[in-house]
């Protein structure tokens, strides 16, 4: 009886694990487009999940994005967490368009991810956006702020949208 349950559990685990393998794959063309967007410092990230430090992960149903283009960052992100020393009404939060103060890109030690750190000043506080962008287009974003608790987001890079073309 024990071995039947063990075999059934192992088969179920193998089935569950194999389901996610195909969903994260991208075509070579999409991977080339992702590299091209990152090299041009012009990309759009669609955010799907919010991971606050306090509380559970939340799936986002409304479209939230971060766009990097022409030395500008356009951020439209929700925020849940503790905040200190904010203007009356909460201020801009993570919904703003501002120039990029510093842009740094490097390769991660493992996983083939590119780590992009963008520093910006939205006239209320200094913010650091740290993108971990994987070859399959998946993105992990950490936002650090002077006056708010750190928050994480996850989503994917849109290889088909070129922010540089939309500005023209």
Task: Offer a concise description of the structure.
This protein is an alpha+beta fold.
What's the CATH first level?
A: Mainly Beta
- Catalogue the unreliable spans: none
Q: How are the strands of the biggest sheet laid out side by side?
A: 1-2-3-4-5-6-7-8
Average pLDDT over all residues:
84
Oligomer: single chain
For the sheet with most strands, the description reads: 8 strands, antiparallel, barrel
Number-wise, the strands total 8
Whole-number count of domains: 1
Looking at the overall shape, the CATH architecture is: Beta Barrel
Radius of gyration: 19 Å
* Proportion in β-strands: 35-45%
SSE order, one letter for each helix or strand: HHEEEEEEEEH
Q: What is the overall number of helices?
A: 3
Name a few traits of the molecule.
alpha+beta, Lipocalin, eight-stranded antiparallel barrel, 3 helices
How does this model look, in words?
Helix content is 23%, strand content 42%. It is α+β, with helices and mostly antiparallel strands. The chain has a single domain (27-167), classed as Lipocalin (Beta Barrel), CATH 2.40.128.410. An 8-stranded antiparallel beta barrel has the order 1-2-3-4-5-6-7-8. The radius of gyration is 19 Å and the shape is globular. The N and C termini lie far apart (68 Å). The mean pLDDT is 84.
């Amino acid at each position: 009886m024990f071995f039947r349950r063990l075999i059934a559990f192992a088969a179920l685990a193998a089935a569950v694990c194999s389901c996610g393998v195909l969903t994260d794959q991208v075509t070579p063309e999409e991977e080339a487009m992702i590299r091209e967007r990152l090299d041009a410092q012009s990309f759009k990230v669609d955010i799907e999940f919010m991971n606050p430090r306090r509380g559970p992960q939340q799936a986002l149903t409304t479209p939230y994005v971060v766009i990097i283009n022409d030395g500008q960052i356009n951020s439209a992100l929700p925020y849940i967490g503790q905040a200190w020393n904010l203007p009356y009404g909460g201020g801009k939060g993570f919904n703003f368009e501002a120039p990029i103060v510093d842009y740094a890109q490097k390769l991660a030690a493992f996983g083939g991810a590119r780590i992009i750190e963008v520093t910006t000043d939205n006239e209320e506080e200094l913010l650091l956006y740290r993108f971990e962008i994987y070859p399959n287009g998946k993105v992990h974003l950490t936002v650090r702020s002077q006056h708010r608790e750190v928050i994480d987001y996850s989503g994917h890079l849109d290889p088909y949208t070129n922010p540089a073309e939309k500005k023209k």
